[in-house]
Specification:
Elements (H helix, E strand, L loop, with lengths): L4 H4 L2 H4 L11 H9 L17 H14 L15 E2 H13 L3 H15 L10 E2 L14 H17 L3 H18 E4 L2 E4 L7 E2 L2 E4 L6 H10 L3 H16 L12 E4 L5 E3 L6 E2 L5 H8 L5 H13 L8 E2 L12 H11 L19 H16 L5
Antiparallel strand pairs: 1-2, 3-4, 5-6, 6-7, 7-8, 9-10
Helix pairs in contact: 4-14, 5-6, 5-7, 5-14, 7-8, 7-9, 8-9, 11-13, 11-14, 13-14
Amino acid sequence: MNRRALFGLGIGSAFAGIGAGSSLSGSTFAASMAQGAGEPVRRLASLTTPSVEDRREYATFVRRFVAPDGRVVDTYNGGVSHSEGQGWGLLMAVSFNDPATFDRIHGWTRRHLRRPADSLHAWRFQPQAKTPVDDLNNATDGDLYIAGALARAGRVWRRPDLSAEAGQIGQDILRLLVRRVGQRLVLLPGAYGFDREGGVIVNPSYYAFPMIHEVAQVAPSGVWSALEADGLRLIEDGRFGKWDLPPDWLRVDQRTGALSPAPSWPARFSYDAIRIPLHLAWCRTRSQGALAAFWRYWEGQHPFPPSWVDLQSGTIAPYPADPGTRAVAALALRTRAGGEGGTLPSIGEEDHYYPSALIMLSRIAMQEFSTIT
């Protein structure tokens, strides 16, 4: 099933919305914000000077996937756009010190995806549809990347307007998308539609830890540190199968907190979950258990890792992973002692948007290894 299938199935209208009683209550949210900067989440990256090769890859990405008006185009899914892609485009632009492209992407995102009642963004834009934005549910990974890129741009370009906008998005993420389930704070994948038969569905790849670190600086709250710690534990605890890997989608039992692969999706480490090692490696996380599992998996499949592995049957895909997955694998392997990994692939003229974005994010993460403070 497509990684966006949950939103596309209209789950938001099929299940009750998440109200103030189920996410952080108003009083709890206000108290968390009042903690101010007392609990900043660690480690911010400095703007680096990209290599000639990385600049060439960035130029290729912009040429192939960023329209003149600033829309980031998903070439594999009928030319639609997602909030995640807009956030990734913004992050690439600030990372390569390209304010003109940043402003184009930012302007399009505000005009077409910003939700009317809060600072979050609708998850999908369909250019050929009569109503291009027909579902106002958000996708939390997209909002984290948009807010994180705005916060970073505000910091490195000294743009207080961007920092303020990032802070507003961050506050709405805390207010609408953080839920206590049992003993865990969890990050909801969207504002509504993720309560299912006594469980809450989460996507571990939506925990974009480097972006959480950025947003925490402009929307200060002790909740970010707790969310990061519980997110790392969720990834550590929610691993299954022969290779001890996390699935794309995870169910958290509302009564016991028990974790299991979400029943409506194949129990696979694949298209979504590939971003988990990206985020862990990017911020040099302390979650070495999870990273070590990825190392063992990729070393065991060398030199051609499969596109996915079924965590219940152990079956692996009969075809190799795309260049984006290979880029993340190379990045993660470099976090081992000794720091050696494979060469990061380049964006090919036949590569689609998603693997190309993973290549660029892996390259940015690699740039930042020596600058995280």
